[in-house]
Specification:
The structure is a single chain. The chain is of the alpha/beta class. The chain contains eleven helices and seven strands. It has a five-stranded parallel sheet, sandwiched between helices. It has a two-stranded antiparallel ribbon with strand order 4-5. The N terminus is likely disordered. It binds thiamine diphosphate and magnesium ion. The site of magnesium ion has 6 residues, from strand 4.
């Protein structure tokens, strides 16, 4: 698969209003700085367990979620800090969750891989590769049966395509006419396995053809292109009630998780992709278009830094869930005696 084989949107379509552009920039900066700080906290032993950073992939979550309605459902995989922050889960709530504290969005029980916020329609954070796809079908089936107009956006990695659940879910969604946007974040690797070592046909979006499902591919390093592609796809899903498969081609700049010697990919490849880092690309584009000056950029950076400092301080100060609460939500309260 050629790294250059990516779709782009026409220039005219790619310029939303200045305020929307600045909001996208702020979100991408928030996600990037949040994850950089999370890595530091991990190295200091403040965050434990697994930590998967999506640095390099911010444009996908931010661009896609900007194109959704507030009640549309989101299902993500385990590299999902970007999805949670872009959906508006407060940085403090996400950071506290990663610190394992009671003030986290799952009271510290889920950690980095299981961010969940039902009020914001974020249904995970799913650590099982491809595990989110059948859940997305279930959410969409409920919406269809109840006549609700929502779309379920389901993010998953290229590694999920090798799982039976991917094929079962696409088949079922097409067969049962479920309003799901399947959104593959193709970063070329599933841990240390490059896409073309596990897929005979590596153009992921074209797998939609096997399920009579419309599909498209987009440059996942270009936030405006992602926003436009998702907007078009979601309009189609909402209008027809039928599913859509969108592939966003992107790259993670960091290791798979915090423990990974990265022996499976050449350094030059990483460096080449960094030339297309979605943040500097977008900043340069905004500056060239006269929509961003140095002062405005510094102001956004300062705002984001303050938000993250506050999130870390609050997470450090917060308590862990008391032991007495540990069975809460684990064991159902005993049901009353059945009536005879
Ligand atoms: C069913 C299942 N098999 C194996 C694993 C172990 N595992 C964790 S991450 C991963 C790779 C997934 O790659 P991809 O879907 O491309 O996501 P990315 O890490 O690139 O975001 C694997 C195989 C798992 N979590 N679940
Ligand atoms: Mg991957």
């Amino acid at each position: 698969m050629s790294e250059a084989a990516i779709a782009s949107v026409p220039e005219a379509e790619a310029w939303p209003a200045r305020e929307r552009c600045l909001a996208l920039l702020r979100q991408m900066l928030l996600v990037r700085r949040f994850e950089e700080r999370a890595a530091e906290c991990y190295q200091q032993g403040l965050i434990r367990g697994f930590l998967h950073l999506g640095i390099g992939q911010e444009a996908v979550a931010v661009g896609a979620i900007a194109a959704l309605e507030p009640d549309d459902r989101i299902v993500a995989a385990y590299r999902e800090h970007g999805q949670a922050l872009a959906r508006g889960v407060p940085a403090a709530s996400v950071m506290a969750e990663m610190f394992g504290k009671a003030t986290g969005c799952c009271r510290g029980r889920g950690g980095s891989m299981h961010l969940f916020d039902a009020a914001r329609r974020l249904y995970g954070g799913n650590a099982i590769v491809a595990g989110g796809l059948p859940l997305a079908c279930g959410l969409a089936l409920a919406d269809r049966i109840l006549g609700r107009p929502h779309v379920t956006a389901c993010f998953f990695g290229d590694g999920a395509v090798a799982e039976g659940e991917f094929h079962e879910s696409l088949n079922l969604a097409a067969l049962w006419v479920l309003p799901v946007l399947f959104l593959c974040e193709n970063n070329l690797y599933a841990m240390g396995t490059r896409l073309d070592r596990h897929q005979a046909m590596a153009d992921i979006h074209r797998k939609g053809d096997a399920y009579a499902m419309p599909h498209a591919v987009v440059d996942g390093m270009d936030v405006l292109a992602v926003e436009a592609a998702v907007r078009r796809a979601v309009e189609q899903v909402r209008g027809t009630g039928r599913p859509f498969l969108l592939e966003a081609r992107t790259y993670r700049f960091r290791a798979h998780s915090m423990y990974d010697a990265e022996l499976y990919r050449p350094r030059e490849e990483v460096e080449r992709w960094k030339q297309r880092d979605p943040l500097p690309l977008f900043i340069a584009r905004l500056q060239d278009g006269g929509r961003l000056d140095d002062a405005a950029l510094a102001a956004v950076e300062a705002e984001v830094a303050a938000e993250i400092d506050a999130a870390v301080a609050a997470a450090q100060a917060a308590a862990v869930e008391p032991v007495a609460d540990l069975l809460r939500d684990v064991v159902a309260p005993s049901s009353p005696e059945p009536q005879t």
